[in-house]
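Hi support team,

I submitted a single chain yesterday and got back a structure, but I'm not sure I'm reading the token output correctly. Could someone confirm the output below corresponds to the sequence I sent? I've pasted both exactly as they appear in my results page.

Thanks,
R.
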Amino acid sequence: MREIKLKAADGSGEFSAFVYAPQTQDTCGAVVVIQEIFGVNDSLRATCQTLADMGFIAIAPDLFWRQEAGVNISDKSDAEWQKAFALMNGFDQDKGVEDLKVTLAAARQLPGANGIAGTLGFCLGGRLAVMMATRSDADVNVSYYGVGIDNLVPEFDKIEAPLMLHIAERDEYVSQEAVETILDGAEESEWIDAFIYPGVQHAFARVGGVHFDTRAAVIANGRTAELLAELLG
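Hi R., thanks for writing in. Yes, this is the structure output for that exact sequence:
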């Protein structure tokens, strides 16, 4: 892993991004890995390493840098949850998307990159991955249990690249009504594939998380891997 610095598009400063490169001499696609509300934490870093082991370049930008750089917390204590929610509530998602666009452009130019790049996000990052699908030129986007995606359905007609949605059936942060709205919107788009994972809660694929579900995570990650391998090379 190496840390690089990227300049924000609005000129407000620079932020860190953490790059995980595969052990290969061949060029490969890149994945912008988008954090949950816990920052670029150990769980997200483990996901980045897994992607690198699969032969992709993974790059995870620090999106909370305008509030606090270097956030790395878990879901194991009330204090950490309180801090995570405070950071989420203070986070400007539109500026976050602009930071992700900067990261996406940088990902395409990294050593060993083949110029093809997508995004993969979890929770807050799952929502941001959908926003990247509607607002950027990413080649593919993958969203794990994104929150508030139903509010983005009006933007679905802007999507022009594959978007995969992984939805937890018992997500405590997403109502059944919201899920139905998302699925209805997905059915009208040729670009979107949505999958429901029965009996699991939010964050079922969070490495080391309290709601991690091995079976659902393996199935979802397998679908993701197949899509990324097809589209990123």
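A quick pointer for reading it: Strands lie at 2-7, 14-20, 28-34, 57-61, 113-122, 141-144, 163-168, 192-197. Let us know if anything else looks off.

Best,
Support desk
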